[in-house]
Amino acid sequence: MAGDALGWWGVPLAVGAGAIRVSTPFLFVSLGEVVTETSGRINLGLEGTLVMGAMTGYAVSYLTGSPWLGVLVAGIVGALFGALHAAICSLPKVNDIAVGIALMLFGTGAAFFLGTTFVAPSARHLPSIPAGFWSNVPQIQAALKVNALFFIGVAVAPILAWALKNTGTGLMLRMVGDNSEAARAAGYSPLMVRLWATMFGGFMAGVGGADLSLYYPGSWSEGLSSGQGIIAVALVIFARWRPMACLWASLLFGGAGALGPALQSVGVTGGYYLFNAAPYILTLVIMIIACSPDRTLAGAPGELSITK
């Protein structure tokens, strides 16, 4: 750990490096959910999609020796889960939230059942980029090995922000999410738009899950996710449905998740479990602060389930 050689100066370094590692799944899930919710649909089943993506990505990497193929297949499986969610929600009198909870349970259960044989085997992991090349300190070099998927997520965030505001597809998504009747009058099918938006959200969640099993922590087990899919949905509300805000919020949540190990590296062991609970405490505090009657749904799409 960086803190072993650098003392207390290693704590912010460890938190920053940990923020990058821990934030990557949050980033991918939240960016995908921004698109889904912009179309007027909320998907609470992303925890199940995340876990299924983690299992699928690990299994494919183990069987083929290609972690990037594992990421791709994990995304495709996530897109299929998104399509299933969209198909069920398109039925009359079906509630998005109830369907999401059901698919969350289904996804986690299916992943645990199908992934039993992949708990012990070791799969090939995703590569890291040595962002600490400028330093001769081994601890700094180790701390600043950055997952390649993180850079992809950082690139996707501004592209997505620009696309939602400046392209015809972005306008279509926002129109469907704000007023489906107006979208129909303009010749768009809200059900089809929401299908593709939910599939995109599922694809991103699957990729986020693959990051968990193929990079950090880099293994497959039943307790891998720890509720990150659900936290990412709350993160979207906190970010007010803005992709760039999702990027900064993901880093914030990632830093909170890295706080406990960073303090442990310098010998602070008291309250270890409390520090490990920091992301969940942060989620609760942020939602309490942000969810005042005047601000709770500021920027929310008009057709979103939670606005009705």
What does this structure look like?
This protein is mainly alpha-helical and 308 residues long. It has a single domain (2-307), classed as ABC transporter involved in vitamin B12 uptake, BtuC (Orthogonal Bundle), CATH 1.10.3470. The chain is 69% helix and 2% strand. The protein has 14 helices and 2 strands; from the N terminus they run H-H-H-H-H-E-H-E-H-H-H-H-H-H-H-H. The protein has helices at 2-6, 10-38, 46-64, 67-89, 96-114, 138-143, 148-166, 168-178, 180-185, 190-214, 228-238, 243-264, 272-276, 278-290, and strands at 128-130, 145-147. It has a two-stranded antiparallel sheet. Helix 2 (10-38) runs parallel beside helix 7 (148-166). The longest helix is centred in the first third of the chain and has 29 residues, at 10-38. It is globular and about 60 Å long. The mean pLDDT is 86.
Radius of gyration: 19 Å
Distance from N terminus to C terminus (CA atoms, Å) equals 48 Å
CATH topology: ABC transporter involved in vitamin B12 uptake, BtuC
CATH architecture: Orthogonal Bundle
Unreliable residue runs: none
Query: What percentage of amino acids are in beta strands?
Result: under 5%
